[in-house]
Design a protein that fits this description.
Largest sheet: 8 strands, mixed
Structural class: alpha/beta
Distance between the termini: 51 Å
Number of strands: 16
Number of helices: 26
Oligomer: single chain
Mean pLDDT: 90
Length: about 650
């Protein structure tokens, strides 16, 4: 196919701009994915570069898979092996590089990648060991702070020179941070922040390794650039320093993740570090009607810190935005459910999304949907790989695969219950520490030396036999069969017969076996499981397309629906009170802009005059953002007339 003939002029410019630094400001619904994949295919087909010399990074494994699949489709028949391209997430690419050079950082190549709950588990143990007691610096706050420091590219030495709260407290927190990093090294483990921080350390200490990667990657592409944090930017900047052919694609108007470290000023930094830069604006929208775009554009125009662009469409003006001022939260939920039932009389509920600012808003909506007998599902629930039974099963596999995985040992030693509680675990830990052994090997010595009571010693010996049998089986048998055998022999499956009345946990374990059956290498699977908490599954939920999506605004980014309800447009909710207190009014406006531009055909805006709070009905003030929507595109639907009063001083617009 001709890779250029169905592109508009700015899209064509973005694809053809092959040399030097390029920034593509891609407005919502402007064909960003098409530009990304066409650009990669154009590079490959024109013979400008070999596949292995292209690095494309994004933020989710799903986006990376879709990018690879689309490029494969575009160049099929051309004899190009797209699989040789480096396409993946920042953390996935960092892990891949670190495994090749782990010894340079005194790590072993099969280092663990810690999930967030494992990171918290390590911090909790250190807090107890160090007798660090502080009502403010809880283990969870410490773990989150350590992650933020790494995302900001700060070392323990740099943190030590900064003021946290007061000097004594600063020293204590830094001491925990240093102890945490030492414990990770002892465990041969890295958390997500380390995957990029350790890359930069590797390159600083080994310039020849950095140069080899700089020479390898002749072309670099970054998706969702507005979501990059400080260390991600430095990582990209280092890799692009040799060839300078780096293309970043994003939208400053959709930067909504500052709370997890994203820096909007990376766009300005890019212009400073790559002054000879070509800027391409994608402003033609292929998703939404004219009225939706007019409302969204006038809203976002109130933000000061933006590059500036105006979305437009050659399509129809479409219906006006529907505005509903409800009496209370229940009235608002009833309206949404009844209107959904009216619009979807044929049962096509998958056309509708209801977007909320915070997850607690979903309860009334769920009740109203149930009363109207409207099928729905909540987006942003517990991800597949985060479910307890899946984490237990993966921990068993990790221990089978790598005997020194102390965190996996601690997770499953008493799952299901073997009467090997905290006291028995302490004996094992003390023996392992005394002999400088892993917990698994320490457990063997505990059995051999008879350091536990007879019943506990017998249970521990049986557990060790399960792990040893799994390791022997893994040499000759597929990973899914290893899992089946380990779960059977350990008594885990039998325990579910009693506790899992609905069968959901057993179904999840069966799904995990299906995933394992699709891989020939257990190590590769465990790596992917650590990096991707929600992989594509063989048995997708049935009738997903026939359910209303109820989602937070943050979780809805990147999606689109024919009909969108934006509910709870009230001061203190949208914009959210906490965000405004921290000077985040412009980001709240961007968040609403993201929500509005999810709609293709119909957009509903609603708020309640009263909202239940702490079991009391409290007056609610309409969001100031409603006043920024042009009145000529609004149509009132029942309830009260739209009146936006002046916000009280605590929430004054800045």
């Amino acid at each position: 196919m001709d890779l250029l003939n169905d592109l508009n002029e700015p899209q064509r410019q973005a694809v053809e701009a092959q040399q030097g630094a390029v920034m593509v400001l891609a407005g919502a619904g402007s064909g960003k994915t098409r530009v990304l994949t066409r650009r990669l295919a154009y590079l490959l087909r024109n013979g400008a570069v070999a596949p292995e010399r292209i690095l494309a990074v994004t933020f989710t494994n799903k986006a990376a898979r879709e990018m690879r699949d689309r490029v494969i489709e575009l160049v099929q028949g051309d004899g190009i092996d797209v699989r040789r391209m480096w396409i993946g997430t920042f953390h996935g690419m960092g892990a891949r590089m670190l495994r090749q050079h782990a010894d340079s950082l005194q790590y072993q190549a099969d280092f663990l990648i810690l999930a967030s709950d494992e990171q918290l588990h390590v911090v909790k143990k250190l807090v107890t060991h160090l007798q660090f007691e502080d009502l403010f610096w809880t283990p969870k706050r410490l773990a989150n702070t350590f992650s933020r420091w790494k995302d900001d590219g700060l070392t323990a030495e740099q943190i030590g020179s900064q003021q946290i709260k007061r000097d004594a407290e600063r020293a204590r927190v830094v001491a925990v941070y240093v102890a945490y990093q030492e414990e990770l090294r002892r465990l041969n483990a890295m958390d997500f922040g380390d995957l990029l921080a350790n890359c930069l350390q590797l390159w600083r200490e080994n310039p020849e390794i950095l140069l080899s990667y700089q020479r390898r990657f002749q072309y670099i592409l970054v998706d969702e650039y507005q979501d990059t944090n400080a260390i991600q930017y430095e990582w990209i900047k280092c890799l692009a320093a040799h060839h300078g052919n780096v293309c970043v694609v994003g939208d400053d108007d959709q930067s909504i993740y500052s709370w997890r470290g994203a820096r909007l000023d990376n766009i300005l930094r890019f212009k400073e570090d790559f002054p000879v830069m070509q800027l391409v604006r994608l402003e033609q929208n292929y998703r939404s009607t004219g009225n939706i775009l007019r409302a969204a554009s006038q809203l976002i125009d109130h933000n000061q810190g933006r590059m500036g662009k105006t979305l437009w469409t050659s399509g129809a003006e479409g219906a006006r935005l529907q505005y509903y001022a409800a009496e209370d939260g229940e009235d608002e939920a009833r309206f949404v459910a009844a209107e959904t039932a009216r619009l979807c009389r044929d049962g096509s509920y998958g056309r509708v999304a209801v977007l909320v600012r915070t997850s607690h808003q979903t309860r009334l909506l769920e009740e109203a949907m149930n009363r109207q007998m409207v099928a729905y599902r909540i987006v942003g629930g517990l991800r597949f790989m985060d479910r307890a039974e899946v984490r237990d099963a993966v921990a068993y596999l990790r221990l089978v695969y790598m005997s020194r995985d102390d965190l996996a040992f601690e997770r499953v030693i008493n799952v299901p219950s073997r009467k090997l509680g905290p006291a028995a675990l302490r004996v094992i830990q003390e023996q392992a520490q005394l002999a400088a052994l892993t917990l698994l090997e320490g457990a063997r010595q505990v059995v051999e030396k008879g350091l536990l009571a007879t019943g506990a010693r017998k249970s521990l010996a049986e557990f060790l036999a399960v792990i040893d049998a799994g390791r022997e089986l893994a040499v000759t048998t597929s990973a899914d069969q290893v899992l089946q055998q380990v779960l059977q022999n350990s008594g885990y499956l039998a325990s579910l017969q009693v506790d899992d009345r609905e069968g959901d946990r057993r179904d999840n374990l069966q799904e995990l076996q299906t995933l394992l059956a699709q891989t020939s290498d257990l190590g590769t699977f465990l790596e992917q499981a650590a990096l991707d908490a929600d992989p594509p599954r063989a048995h997708a939920e049935e009738e997903t397309q026939q359910r209303v999506i109820i989602s937070t605004l943050h979780a809805a980014k990147g999606l689109e629906f024919p009909v969108v309800f934006l509910v709870g447009m009230e001061e203190g909710l949208l914009p959210h009170k906490l965000a405004m207190e921290e000077g985040g009014l412009e980001e709240e406006r961007r968040l609403l802009y993201v929500g509005m531009t999810r709609a293709q055909e119909r957009l509903y805006l609603s708020h309640a005059r009263r909202r239940m709070w702490m079991n009391r009905g409290e007056p609610a003030m309409p969001s100031r953002f409603l006043k920024e929507v042009p009145p000529e595109v609004l149509e009132k639907r029942g309830g009260q007339q739209l009146t936006v009063r002046k916000p009280f001083s605590g929430w004054a617009r800045r």
